[in-house]
Write a structure and sequence with these properties.
Elements (H helix, E strand, L loop, with lengths): L2 H18 L10 H8 L3 H13 L3 E4 L2 E4 L18 H14 L7 E2 L1 H8 L3 H12 L4 E3 L5 E3 L4 H22 L7 H18 L1 H4 L3 H13 L5 H20 L4 H20 L3 H26 L3
Antiparallel strand pairs: 1-2, 3-5, 4-5
Helix pairs in contact: 1-3, 2-3, 4-11, 5-6, 7-13, 8-10, 8-12, 10-11, 11-13, 12-13
């Protein structure tokens, strides 16, 4: 099967995953934002959206695309390849946990999950072994795996580790020369935050995509394989937690945008003290939001 067709299948299933985290009546993000999120072209995104529309999962009116029906298992496209990449498996596994509120202590049926995710059993075993080093799962004494889950203790430890990594990234960023690409990225991100702020009441659901883009840009200046591995987990958890708790979402996202802008301005001014203070302010608030989301969904 052609590579482009396989890329479409993956993108379409990824779009189904995004829709599964939304409520009926929610509007999908703009095509550009979806393309950034899914790491595919706008052409593929548009083709995937057209299929959602033809399958009566969304209502497409002009630029507005509204979710009218939750995706089901039968809507997924069967991958042409025999297994997923590690990154795709991570996305599916974490979305499964978060979307279906899988509680801590749940026994993981490896055979069932391998069929559900479309990966060989040995690949899933290797993936779970990697998660066990992060404290998310553990091997049972008599075989098999258990989910340790996203507890409050896990969230606190993850948040504190995130602060260490991102403060280190800020310090490295401020030492970079004027011609480094990060400065152009920050200026672009500032405009994107200001644009979203001006229409936030209509597009506040788009903030999670912009939040991920901003933090990824800051962290991209660190070239360390161990840091990059940890950042993948942090990005997944802090990105999806914006989708867990819909209460006061507009107000929370408005506050986060202001914090991002304060942080960006400080970095553009190359003011170390202000940059670290703004980073800490935002990261501490994100920690509290994550903990609140866990309480709402009873993960703790």
């Amino acid at each position: 099967m052609a590579r482009t067709d396989e890329r479409f299948r993956r993108a379409y299933n990824r779009l189904l995953d995004i829709c599964s985290t939304m409520a009926i009546g929610d509007e999908l993000p703009a095509e550009t934002a979806l393309a950034d999120k899914m790491e595919v072209s706008r052409t593929i995104v548009r083709t995937a959206l057209q299929k959602l529309d033809s399958d009566n999962l969304i209502r497409w009116e002009g630029r507005t695309k509204t979710l009218i029906r939750k995706p089901q298992a039968e809507h997924r496209l069967v991958p042409a390849e025999s297994s997923l990449s590690t990154e795709e498996l991570e996305h599916r596994f974490f979305e499964w946990i978060l979307r279906f509120d899988v509680p801590a202590g749940t026994s993981l049926n490896v055979a069932q999950l391998s069929r559900q995710f479309g990966v060989p059993v040995h690949n899933l075993q290797e993936f779970l072994a990697g998660l066990s080093r992060l404290g998310l799962v553990e091997r049972r004494p008599r075989g098999g795996w258990s989910l340790l889950g996203f507890t409050s203790e896990f969230a606190v430890e993850l948040s504190e580790f995130r602060m260490v990594l991102e403060l280190n990234a800020v310090r490295q960023l401020l030492t970079l020369p004027p011609e480094h690409e990060i400065w152009k990225k920050l200026k672009t991100l500032k405009r994107e935050h200001e644009d979203l702020k001006s229409v936030l009441e209509e597009r506040y659901h788009d903030f999670s995509l912009l939040d991920e883009k901003f933090h990824s840009a800051v962290n991209s200046v660190v070239k360390n394989r161990f840091v990059l591995e940890a950042q993948k987990l942090i990005k997944l958890i802090f990105n999806y937690h914006y989708m867990w708790d819909k209460r006061d979402e507009l107000e929370r996202n408005a506050a986060a945008i202001e914090e991002h802008l304060e942080w960006i301005d400080a970095m553009l001014d190359k003011d170390g003290a202000r940059s670290e203070a703004a980073a800490l302010k935002h990261l501490r608030r994100s920690k509290e939001t994550l903990l609140q989301s866990l309480r709402v969904h009873k993960f703790a």
